[in-house]
Amino acid sequence: MKIIETALNGLLLLEPVVFADERGEFCETFNARRFAALIGREVSFVQDNRSHSRPNVLRGLHYQHTHPQGKLVQVTQGAVWDVAVDLRRASPCFGQWHGVTLSAENRRQLWIPEGFAHGFLALQDGAEFCYKVSDYWHAGDEYCIRWDDPALGIDWPLAQPPVLSDKDRQGLNFADAPMF
Ligand SMILES: Cc1cn([C@H]2C[C@H](O)[C@@H](COP(=O)(O)OP(=O)(O)O[C@H]3O[C@@H](C)C(=O)[C@@H](O)[C@H]3O)O2)c(=O)[nH]c1=O
């Protein structure tokens, strides 16, 4: 597993080592011991999630506040442009975002620690998105920050307005959202 630091403190891009042979290929997508060594602490993942999104679907920017979730995310079909926003007031990167393309082809994973909001845009072929989370889903603790809040200025690679859920159409402004 190769690790690439991003501009945001604690937000890490991971590249699994892929073993290819005449049958196809193999890689470990999660190894608890190695992951703890990479990020410097134990994380206990309690839920695995999978979503499928049609092209131009945008989900986000989501987080839980009382039950924050660290998320280890990857794409198993298609591609997304994935975004994390640092909501940790004490962080030197508070309020900053980072975007990266995750695809079945590049096999990259993004580790998004607790204290970030997260979202993604499904690119041209749509995407199957798989992720592990470090706390359970708490419906009443979910928050959504507007994907297009000018205060964040996220430069989404959009050719047309995205397809959104009702919930995501009613996201909060960054300034009104609870922080960490
Ligand atoms: C997130 C979640 C949703 N659900 C249900 C609620 C709802 O009926 C249906 C779809 O939920 P949502 O519209 O919230 O799904 P979605 O918009 O895909 O939500 C996800 O977005 C990305 C960006 C994240 O970072 C995730 O943490 C999560 O918030 O699935 C669960 O049963 N468990 C869960 O953990």
TrEMBL record:
Homodimer. The active site is at H62 (proton acceptor), Y131 (proton donor). InterPro entries: RmlC-like (IPR000888), RmlC-like_jellyroll (IPR014710), RmlC_Cupin_sf (IPR011051). It comes from Pseudogulbenkiania subflava DSM 22618. This is dTDP-4-dehydrorhamnose 3,5-epimerase. Pfam families: dTDP_sugar_isom. The record marks W137 as: Participates in a stacking interaction with the thymidine ring of dTDP-4-oxo-6-deoxyglucose. Keywords: Isomerase. GO terms for molecular function: dTDP-4-dehydrorhamnose 3,5-epimerase activity. Belongs to the dTDP-4-dehydrorhamnose 3,5-epimerase family. It comes from the Bacteria. Pathway: Carbohydrate biosynthesis; dTDP-L-rhamnose biosynthesis. One of its GO terms (cellular component) is cytosol. Its EC number is 5.1.3.13. It catalyses: dTDP-4-dehydro-6-deoxy-alpha-D-glucose = dTDP-4-dehydro-beta-L-rhamnose. The keyword Isomerase applies. The lineage of its organism: Bacteria, Pseudomonadati, Pseudomonadota, Betaproteobacteria, Neisseriales. It is an enzyme of class 5 (isomerase). GO terms for biological process: dTDP-rhamnose biosynthetic process; polysaccharide biosynthetic process. Catalyzes the epimerization of the C3' and C5'positions of dTDP-6-deoxy-D-xylo-4-hexulose, forming dTDP-6-deoxy-L-lyxo-4-hexulose.
